[in-house]
């Protein structure tokens, strides 16, 4: 359906004079969209009376004219917009950067009253290829430094860093670059282990990249659990543990003599008097190249012996 010249001229005159009638139709605020996305413009206070004419325009460009029995969309927008007569909402999709600007709604009621309102749209480029680049070498507590850099393309208005879903804040050991796109941690501590998240954002869209850091430490706090005094002929197990990342390996000595036990548990199936002595557990971390030991004294006594 083509718009008649007389109707077209009438609507343009209404649009022109509407500039001086004030903003009768209110919108919640500016709209934001991403290239290729969609947006909906809808007045917060659509008229409750019958409407004879509705007009949407972008700047000075007509988008559509709706009358009581028909809606005409100009060819430039014919495959990119839809219109809801009940709410007066205009949906625009397949957004382009040049869609940014002022959108104006003009309506003429059955009583001949002209109402106008306008809102704005800012279209942003999509944010793509967001990723984090971190250290490739193994990180050791108290020795290593970690640099994490973020990269991405598009319209980026802010960069936010998180660690394990909580905001990452600067400190004496955590320093952000001036553009906030990289962070340096030196020296690393075990508390720096976790998942780091960097979000690139603009008012219309956001993209997040993640990176996990593992801080190697230990072994430390080596301890041996087990009985101190046992009867002759019983089964005994001594269990060795240590705080370590990665998990420590273990070796045992009895009275400074090496054994072939390389597990965290030293088991004696049937005790005799030769099993009395000092049991030494050594924990070893193959990444940090560190070790730590703990000693446990075991006494084997006859069943009728006093303590």
TrEMBL record:
InterPro entries for this protein? Ig-like_dom, Ig-like_dom_sf, Ig-like_fold, Ig_I-set, Ig_sub, Ig_sub2, Ig_V-set, IgSF_CEA-related
What are the UniProt keywords, alphabetically? Disulfide bond, Glycoprotein, Immunoglobulin domain, Signal
Q: Where is the signal peptide?
A: 1-22
Which superkingdom, per the lineage? Eukaryota
User: Which positions fall inside the Ig-like domain?
Assistant: 125-202, 203-293
Question: Per the record's keyword annotation, is Isomerase included, yes or no?
Answer: no
The UniProt entry, under PANTHER family, shows: CARCINOEMBRYONIC ANTIGEN-RELATED CELL ADHESION MOLECULE 20-LIKE-RELATED, CARCINOEMBRYONIC ANTIGEN-RELATED CELL ADHESION MOLECULE 8
Q: What is this protein called?
A: Ig-like domain-containing protein
Q: Please give the organism.
A: Sinocyclocheilus grahami
